[in-house]
Amino acid sequence: MDDALVVSVLVLVAVAATAAVLQRDPARQAIVLSLLGLALAVLFTVLQAPDVGLAQLAVGSAVTPLMILLTVRKVRQRKGRPK
């Protein structure tokens, strides 16, 4: 049972990583990256590393995608300005 859980979470991580790579829009990439961070946090928890899972949850699922989204927003705002 434990091996099946690890394999299923690994498949989830692989699918999320592939989806993140295949996205063209940076905003969508950030959202899928957040889901990838969540899947990795679950994987670390299943592999009995809850401290690493909590750090991944905070950084990989929240902070990094938020910084990417804010950067994309700022770049898009500057593109719209006349020179």
From TrEMBL:
Transmembrane segments: 6-23, 30-47, 53-72
Presence of keyword Hydrolase: no
Superkingdom assignment: Bacteria
Domain MrpA C-terminal/MbhD: 11-76
Family annotation (Gene3D superfamilies): NADH-ubiquinone/plastoquinone oxidoreductase chain 6, subunit NuoJ
Keyword terms: Cell membrane, Membrane, Transmembrane, Transmembrane helix
InterPro entries: MrpA_C/MbhD, Nuo/plastoQ_OxRdtase_6_NuoJ
Cytoplasm in keyword set: no
Membrane topology: Multi-pass membrane protein
Cell location: Cell membrane
Pfam family, any one: MbhD
UniProt protein name: DUF4040 domain-containing protein
